[in-house]
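Example 3.2
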Amino acid sequence: MGDGLEVPGHGVAELESHDGRAHRVSEHQNFLHAHGSNLRCCSRCAKLPPPSLHSAPTALDHCPDPYVPGNVSYAAGDRVSVHSHVFECRPPPYEYYCGVDVLGSADAGRIEEDGGIVRAREYYAGAWEPVSPCLETGTPTGGPTVVPTGFPTVQPSLLPTSEEPTSAEPTPSPSDTPTDLLICPHPYSEEYAPRYRDGYLVEVSGTVFECKPYPYDYYCTLPDFRPRPGVVHATGPAWSDAWEKLGPCGHPDTDGPSGAPSAAGSGQPSGAPSGMPTCEFRRPW
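Structure, written as tokens:
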């Protein structure tokens, strides 16, 4: 074993090897020596604790401004955030590429973080340096929250309130009209598909779909995996691996339910509102 090479951030110790000679060895070498194929470790190797090879970076208190594709004003040292991670523009000669959208708008801003591994993209791999995670403020949860409308369900009484019936009219049956309906998000767009990620909601044919979390969210960016209502597995890729079907949706300005028809056709408009509850549209985010 030769002289130890000091690695920045790791300690260096002088120890006695199996041939009786003193050598300098770094913490990094000590770790490789103790855990590698050569197990004939010196007597003082154990006194140097191995360094952590997988220490997670500490998240910053807040995220900087989001990355803007094609922003030619980016300069060395500028920091941006993408998907709750901070990236810093490197100095020249890489600085120029921080503001160049080489691949066009379809792939702009694809600085992503998946499980600690940053995907390599040739047009920014040398320009943006990953720094650390950061904490988003006011970030939506991504999952839809269905809020009850608060209208109680009126059940017909099984017991008469008096010995004689108060009315000869039959008791109306409960309505099948839903009381909760999601507001339709933006329609699915192949042009915007490369920016879809975990938690994104889209609308296809009056149905809401949510992009599944990692690792399936990558397929949400591929138009071949666009949601297809009524098709579990298409002849090509299986869209259901990337998108979760949440249910039907409506537009409050156009899809509101009409009033219930009166029991008797009097020909005159009813002066009082019907007893039917109206659908209340609530946003899921």
